């Protein structure tokens, strides 16, 4: 089993490997003891596959209540958040209770925000079941969506621990595995050229990784994120580098309607635009054409959806949290492993996006 410590204001462990959840009781004991009650939040797909198994494991520690949401990004809504708080009150949870998030990034974000705000904050743990969640489960960003933007209502709230068991990834559809791979690639591109080279070396490892390869990808990605979070827990500086590919990616998700495209596919399109910008604006040598071909081989959509105009996407980018003083902040790369923030006036960025999209068609 691998272990990575996230050096947040209150450090916590990320345990990676099958059987990692067996360490929960010790983690809780080190943190003051077992909770009075545990609220297990999951989605209907994950509940059907792993809900009873995890519930039985948690019940060896404390009584467990279960709240199930529908699978998909639409669950990150105010209505579901409110329903969770109502359920928690009805079931008698109090300040000595705990939330356990079993699922992917949607469940983790939703459950974490509920934990952050229930009775001004109760502990929670993350039990990810997707590759994508290796990013979202670490770092303490919790949120729900608003029709005008993704993750617009939320809080920084760190978990007590993260338990990542690769066995839970076995049932992932190919599209969801690919979605998570986009975040693995993102971490490599902003921080580790050798890790990126390893990913590029074997296409089968990226498209259909075995357990050892998965553990390495998860561990390396979490190490990179943990290092950045330890420097900048509240995203006032270098943590913004983790938004590489997300400025356009989030705009695509919001403009299409949540759930129409996976997060990873949207971020992949955003990364290609950021790499193209990096070469055009910074003179970086990032082999854009080869990267685009690799993305296409993996199965990522290499183009921005045709039905979305550049103007519509620009409006969503302007509404994003990463916008400041009327300018849109883009994470670009001087080289692999060296990210920088570049600010654009909306008119300039929209023109560049339009130029990028025209080049895609040629």
From TrEMBL:
Cofactor: Co(2+); Zn(2+); NAD(+)
CDD domains: DHQS
Catalytic reactions on record: 7-phospho-2-dehydro-3-deoxy-D-arabino-heptonate = 3-dehydroquinate + phosphate
Top EC category: lyase
Gene3D superfamilies per UniProt: 3.40.50.1970, Dehydroquinate synthase-like - alpha domain
Binding note for cofactor: Binds 1 divalent metal cation per subunit. Can use either Co(2+) or Zn(2+).
Keywords from the UniProt entry: Amino-acid biosynthesis, Aromatic amino acid biosynthesis, Cobalt, Cytoplasm, Lyase, Metal-binding, NAD, Nucleotide-binding, Zinc
Signal peptide positions (record): none
Single GO molecular function: 3-dehydroquinate synthase activity
Residues involved in Zn(2+) binding: 183, 246, 263
Domain 3-dehydroquinate synthase N-terminal intervals: 67-178
Positions annotated to bind NAD(+): 71-76, 105-109, 129-130, 141, 150
InterPro entries per UniProt: Dehydroquinate_synthase, DHQ_synth_AroB, DHQ_synth_fam, DHQS/DOIS_N, DHQS_C
UniProt pathway annotation: Metabolic intermediate biosynthesis; chorismate biosynthesis; chorismate from D-erythrose 4-phosphate and phosphoenolpyruvate: step 2/7
Compartment annotation: Cytoplasm
UniProt EC number: 4.2.3.4
Domain 3-dehydroquinate synthase C-terminal intervals: 180-323
SUPFAM superfamilies: Dehydroquinate synthase-like (SSF56796)
Coiled coil: none
Family, similarity comment: Belongs to the sugar phosphate cyclases superfamily. Dehydroquinate synthase family.
Name recorded for this polypeptide: 3-dehydroquinate synthase
Species: Metabacillus flavus
């Amino acid at each position: 089993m691998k272990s990575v410590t996230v050096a947040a204001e209150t450090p916590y462990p990320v345990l990676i490997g099958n059987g990692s959840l067996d360490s929960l009781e010790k983690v809780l004991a080190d943190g003051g003891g077992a909770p009075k009650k545990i609220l297990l939040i999951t989605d209907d797909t994950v509940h059907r596959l792993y809900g009873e198994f995890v519930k039985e494991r948690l019940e060896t520690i404390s009584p467990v209540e279960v709240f199930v949401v529908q699978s998909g990004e639409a669950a990150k809504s105010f209505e579901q958040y409110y329903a969770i708080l109502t359920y928690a009150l009805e079931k008698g949870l109090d300040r000595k209770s705990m939330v356990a998030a079993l699922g992917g990034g949607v469940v983790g974000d939703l459950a974490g925000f509920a934990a952050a705000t229930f009775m001004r904050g109760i502990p929670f743990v993350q039990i990810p079941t997707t590759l994508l969640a290796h990013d979202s489960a670490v770092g303490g960003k919790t949120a729900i969506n608003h029709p005008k933007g993704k993750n617009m209502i939320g809080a920084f709230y760190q978990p007590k621990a993260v338990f990542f068991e690769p066995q839970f990834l076995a049932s992932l559809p190919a599209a969801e595995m690919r979605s998570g791979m986009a975040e693995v690639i993102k971490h490599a591109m902003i921080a580790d050229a050798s890790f990126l080279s390893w990913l590029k070396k074997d296409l089968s490892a990226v498209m259909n990784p075995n357990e050892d390869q998965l553990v390495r990808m998860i561990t390396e990605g979490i190490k990179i994120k943990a290092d950045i979070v330890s420097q900048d827990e509240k995203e006032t500086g270098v943590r913004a580098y983790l938004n590489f590919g997300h400025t356009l990616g989030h705009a695509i998700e919001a403009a299409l309607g949540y759930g129409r495209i996976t997060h990873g596919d949207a971020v992949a399109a955003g990364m290609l635009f950021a790499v193209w910008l990096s070469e055009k604006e910074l003179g970086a040598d990032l082999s854009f054409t080869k990267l685009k071909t690799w993305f296409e081989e993996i199965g990522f959509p290499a183009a921005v959806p045709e039905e979305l105009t550049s103007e519509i996407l620009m409006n969503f980018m302007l509404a994003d949290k990463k916008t400041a003083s009327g300018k849109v902040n883009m994470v670009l790369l001087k080289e692999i492993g060296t990210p920088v923030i570049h600010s654009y006036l909306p008119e300039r960025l929209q023109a560049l996006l339009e130029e990028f999209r025209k080049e895609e068609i040629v």
